[in-house]
Amino acid sequence: MITLDATQKVDSATRRALSDLSLSVAKCKKIVVVTGAGISCSRGIPDFRSSDGLYALVKEKYPDVVLKGRDLFDASLFRDPTSTAVFYTFIAQLKQSIDAASPGPTHDFLRLLDSKKKLLRSYTQNIDGFEARAGLLSSASHEAKSDGKGKSKLRTKQVRNVQLHGDIHRVRCRSCSAEYPCTPEHISIFMEGLPPDCPECLGRAEARIARSARTIKVGSLRPAIVLYDEPHPLGDDIGTIQSADLSRKPDMLIIMGTSLKVHGLKKLVKEFAKTVHSAGPSSSSPSKAKKWSGKVVFVNRTPPAAEWEGIIDYHVVGETDAWVGKVIEDWKKMRPSDWEIQQTLVATDGDVSMNGNFKVVISPKAMAKDTKKKPRKDEENVPPHSADMVMSTPDVTSHPAKTVFTPPLSPSKRRQGNSHYSLESSPSKRRTLPPVKKGLEDGARGLLFTKPIDVAEMGLFDDMNDMSMQSPPKARPLRAGRTRRVAA
């Protein structure tokens, strides 16, 4: 483990090592960040274990109550009414101090990594919700809840910040597990050391009383934070998110503002560190991996325990806000192209609502798109224009349009007809005309149209000269031995 103390006078070797870490942040594309209460100390939120932390403030406010710091956030505190009242009062004061504060540079740095497409995921022990206020979709927020009918309660792909210990801005029923936003009314009741009643349980109890049924117990609301020795309500979804991030092989791990004392967090950090080291350069194959990847960086005022030797590569001593400021400064110097932003001016009726001398310029691609004639969707079965029509009255003289030579178009760009009912539209719609029969001969055509026909001359009706109604004579049968003479 290499220790880099940024609080004292920095020599050339330390300066070079810090610059290398900044370059790694600028070049890595799948960074996992694990944060603790230390990143919110600059915002006026005390941490848990320092001399001026939350545990020390509890002892000052309640000197007669003997509670260790861990006991204040242990799930067993609900067994004793006194410890429960102390817990509610303390949480109410903490909620008021958080509401009066705002996100700091470290929270903005997380949002910057996400906007630069470099943040794989953020995992935090904090319950203040500053990451969500900075712009990261957190697991405890209402927008991250899944609306589907599956087992998953979160939209795991959309969640950018995983709150390992819950959110102080929400309350949860101890009986039915219904969640609600923490309102000022809840805070006023918590300040008295009392829990508010659950609206869901109250509604069901009143409905049962209205129909003369046996009443049920009304649950009480508590802060929706995860205490020690208490299962996380979203534990299965968080495990799914962690497994997905490990499979994507992150290339850098940054740990900031935490002492790494919680067992679950220690296990999470060790698994990510192992995966990150596998993505970095090794002694067996140094050329296959990039030299800036595969680093585990720990940023905190106090050093990590001895068990982290060989797991953490760099320990940066100092405040997290100062270190992220140094990283951004070096990043802008070493890779200025990452900070170039192309601004688009949107004009409304030719007026750009921005101060300064700006004008709207259409890009060549946009101009090329505009010059192309777009086919009309309503050209089907449209009558021709009046300019193309010629009236058949004698007082109207049609003037032929001036012929303009245009180069022949390719078959794909030839203009189609106005109607798809034309004969040339498709072979299936073409009319098949019967073949024209051969005309009459000249002699026969003359008989029909020019020469008068003499019926007597042609002898067509000789057998019809006798128009009487007498029937033709019957032939007599020949007698025996006689023959009929036939005129020669």
Automatic annotation (TrEMBL):
Cellular localization per UniProt: Mitochondrion
Basic residues: compositionally biased ranges: 476-488
Binding site for Zn(2+): C173, C176, C198, C201
An example Gene Ontology molecular-function term: metal ion binding
Active site: H165
Entry keyword Mitochondrion: yes
InterPro entries noted in UniProt: DHS-like_NAD/FAD-binding_dom (IPR029035), NAD-dep_sirtuin_deacylases (IPR050134), Sirtuin (IPR003000), Sirtuin_cat_small_dom_sf (IPR026591), Ssirtuin_cat_dom (IPR026590)
Any Pfam family the entry gives: SIR2
GO cellular component terms listed in the entry, alphabetical order: mitochondrion; nucleus
Ranges for region Disordered: 365-440, 464-488
Domain Deacetylase sirtuin-type: 11-340
Record flagged with keyword Transferase: yes
SUPFAM superfamilies reported for this sequence: DHS-like NAD/FAD-binding domain (SSF52467)
Keywords: Metal-binding, Mitochondrion, NAD, Transferase, Zinc
Family statement: Belongs to the sirtuin family. Class I subfamily.
PANTHER family: NAD-DEPENDENT HISTONE DEACETYLASE HST3, NAD-DEPENDENT PROTEIN DEACYLASE SIRTUIN-5, MITOCHONDRIAL-RELATED
UniProt protein name: DHS-like NAD/FAD-binding domain-containing protein
The organism of origin for this protein: Mycena belliarum
